[in-house]
Amino acid sequence: MVHQRIILFGTGALFSTAVLDQLLANGLKPDALVLPGFAPSRLNGLADIPVDSGGKDNRFVSAAKQLSISLIYLPESSQTSQARAIAGVKADFILVACWPYLLVTEIVNSVEKAALNLHPSLLPDYRGADPVIAQIASREINLGVSLHLLSQKFDCGDIIGQASLKFETRFPGRDLIEIQAARVGTRLFIQAIQDFGSPDWKPRPQ
């Protein structure tokens, strides 16, 4: 497969870190990792004391350091100003895996090919910020994952691919669902990379 430049957006929570690990396991090292919020900073005169240590053990942060991947912090209020840094990566694809707010069009349009989101449900069912918890609460048995184009409404973009999730237990827990959704969803993304520009690339409205 021809090398594709990828930017992965995620919070560092289980689903996004599992997607990162699946990409790496398949030989797809992102060219940049993007985290929401401000970079950890230091108090004046207290250089050894972090103001925000939330990213200290974040898998995105550790992967960026260990694998020499660019790490970009993206507070919602700084999207427009940071769009230039994201465009500077010259990525082919954006892949979003757990993100707290809509991305501005300058960022969505900054990639050469497509900006995509992985959502751990079979859309249009269970749109929203925490679809796994919603499905567990509803005792949903038809679990799955969707890969779709980013749009200016949450989880409403055209579908690129979907797949069901299979489990040995009837009602799996959150962690198991998210890990399996990341595994299967990453395969959908890899297939989408291969299909882009061919007759097999067939986005469909939800």
Main attributes?
206 residues, alpha/beta, Rossmann fold, seven-stranded mixed β-sheet
Verbal overview:
It contains six helices and nine strands. It is an alpha/beta fold. The strands form two sheets. A seven-stranded mixed sheet has the order 5-2-1-6-7-8-9, sandwiched between helices. It has a two-stranded antiparallel ribbon with strand order 3-4. Helix 1 links the parallel strand 1 and strand 2. Helix 1 crosses helix 6.
Layout of helices and strands, plus pairs?
Elements: E1 6-10, H1 14-25, E2 32-36, E3 42-43, E4 46-50, H2 59-67, E5 70-74, H3 79-87, E6 93-97, H4 105-108, E7 114-119, H5 131-137, E8 144-149, E9 159-164, H6 174-195
Parallel strand pairs: 1-2, 1-6, 2-5, 6-7
Antiparallel strand pairs: 3-4, 7-8, 8-9
Helix pairs in contact: 1-6
